[in-house]
Structures are given as structure tokens and as C-alpha cells.
Amino acid sequence: MEFSAKQIAEFIQGTIVGDENATVHTFAKIEEGIPGAISFLSNPKYTNYIYDTQSSIVLVNKDFEPEKEIKATLIKVDNAYESLAKLLNLYEMSKPKKTGIDPLAYIAPTAKIGENVYIAPFACVGDNAVIGDNTSLHPHATVGSGAKIGSNCILYPNVTVYHDCRVGNNCILHAGSVIGADGFGFAPSPEGYEKIPQIGITILEDDVEIGANTCIDRATMGATIIRKGVKLDNLIQIAHNVEVGSHTVMASQAGVAGSTKVGEWCMFGGQVGLAGHIKVGNKVNLGAQSGVPGSIKDGQNLIGTPPIELKNYFKSSVLFKKLPDMATELNNLKKEIEELKKQLNK
């Protein structure tokens, strides 16, 4: 499909600088622009590319002022990155969507299947499971007995939703993600470790996105809960009875131990690790590789193990590099003091 600068500007409420009749049919990064593509500029580090890009249209923030001539037509918006997201969503929605149940899929006779559903070859839907309207199950996706999947969801290949778990509306589960595997519960005994049955479930509320190979364990009792709008990256582990507050985001390889409660609108960098049975407040930001042994109050920006305030962390990092020299200096001072003591004692 082809769109003009005028049509795009109307959709994202932008202001055109240049040819309103310029047309595009694809997307491209600004440094790899081609004729007929639309690009965006939001990071100042990429500003130099806008003067040479071959893209026909570039989205820029309203405060952008060029230093020299630009060949491309500009569309000025409040937030170029956010406007690009809207256009990408429009593009994605315009793609034809598969519907129907493939003969090679297995659907239990007692399962309930909504309207306009797509169930691919080798997907499996268990006894008494429910699949909502407009939901897609890709090859080898498995929905266990008694599980419920909402409307407008996508389960990519090899996703597994275990028995009795719940997935809300408008959720995306990427390839290999596992919802509702047993929590890590074992009781030590003289003979070894005795498994504690995990009889709870996992609940994903609406608008949740789960990355590839991310695992969210079912609860020992009750439910592990991922609240509305949460976005989890690839390779994340959420343990049993954890609750993640609405609109919290976590980057790859983060891990949350059992029974920990995470607040709303938090942001965790890659490889952040949280101990079990703690509470993290709302709007807490944790830098990459932070290790969190205890509870954190609302609104803190922390990094490190244990995490400390960002400014202090960077000051400490500078000092850490100097520790060998400081240790040598301290030892020399000790020797000088001992010499002075000896002289005074004479």
C-alpha cells in the first residue's frame, strides 16, 4: 500500500515541511533510507544522517531545526518515536489475517473456540479450554485443559499455556514462552528434596506482551499475576506467587524470585535480579545487573548490588577504579605514621 505525506500527517496530527504529495510504501532506518521509504529521527546521535538519507519522508520532533538543506519531506510531530509506533501498528493491522482451523490442529471436543480464530497445523487446544474471538495460535502452540485465552491474542510457535491458566485480551506471547509451569518448590528431606505440588495458576491480564523463551511459573497456591499492560522481554524468569504491577517493563534476563510484589510503572534493565518475599514500590527504575535483596520504596532510581542511588553509584564507580592506588597511599601513610611515633617516643 502507498500513502502520501498529507495522509500520514493527518493520521498522526503532524505538520508537513516539504512536498505533501510525496509517497511511501515501506519503512527504513534513517541511515539506510531508500526512495519510497519513511524514516524517523528522535535520537540526536543520528541527526547527521537526515541530510543524506534517501528516504522520501522523515518523521522529526517539532523542535528539530535543520542546519542545511534536506531532500526528504519532513513531518513534524510531538514525539517522532511514538508517531512511528502508530504508523507501524497501522501497517501491521493492514496485513491480511489468517483465520480458520487447520485439519492438522487438535481441538478437544469440549473446548470452546471463538469467532475468526486461526489455529495452525499442530497447535493443540485441551479439554474445556476457551479461545477468544480473533485469536491466533501458531504451529505447536499448546493451550492446556481448562485454560482460557482472551480475544485478539497471538500465541506464536511453541508457546505453552499450562492447564487452568488465564490469558487476557490483546496479549502477545512470543515463541517458546511458557505460562504456568510448576513453581520451584521442594521440601528438603533426609532422602533428598520432596516436590511440593503447585496447585495455583498463572494469570496474565489484558494488553500483556511476553518475550520469547520467557517463563512465568504457576503459584503454589492462589495465582502468579501479571497485571494489565506489562511488557516482558525475552529470557525472563518470573517465579511462583509473584505479582507484577500494571505497565511495568523488564529487559532481557531479569529474574524475580517467589512471592515478590513489583509495583506499577517500574522499569528494570537487563539481568536485574530480585530476591523473594520483598516489595518493590511504584515507578522504581533499576539499572542493568542490579541485585535487589530487600524491599524498595516508590519512585527510586537505583543501580548496583545492593542497589544505590544512581549519582552515588557513578561516584562510587570512579572511586572503585582508584582503590589500588588509594590502598598503596594508605599503606605508605601508615608507615610514615609509625616512623613518626618511633621518633616521638625517642
What would a concise description of this structure say?
The chain has 346 residues and is an alpha/beta fold. It folds into 3 domains: 92 residues, Udp-n-acetylmuramoylalanyl-d-glutamate--2,6- Diaminopimelate Ligase, Chain: A, domain 1, CATH 3.40.1390.10; 208 residues, UDP N-Acetylglucosamine Acyltransferase, domain 1; 37 residues.
Polypeptide structure, described:
- It is a single chain.
- With 346 residues, the chain is α/β, with parallel strands linked by helices.
- The protein has three domains: 3-94, Udp-n-acetylmuramoylalanyl-d-glutamate--2,6- Diaminopimelate Ligase, Chain: A, domain 1; 101-308, 3 Solenoid (UDP N-Acetylglucosamine Acyltransferase, domain 1), CATH 2.160.10; 309-345.
- It contains three helices and 40 strands.
- It has a twelve-stranded mixed sheet with strand order 8-11-14-17-20-25-28-31-34-37-39-40.
- The N and C termini lie far apart (95 Å).
- 34% of the residues are buried.
- The mean pLDDT is 95.
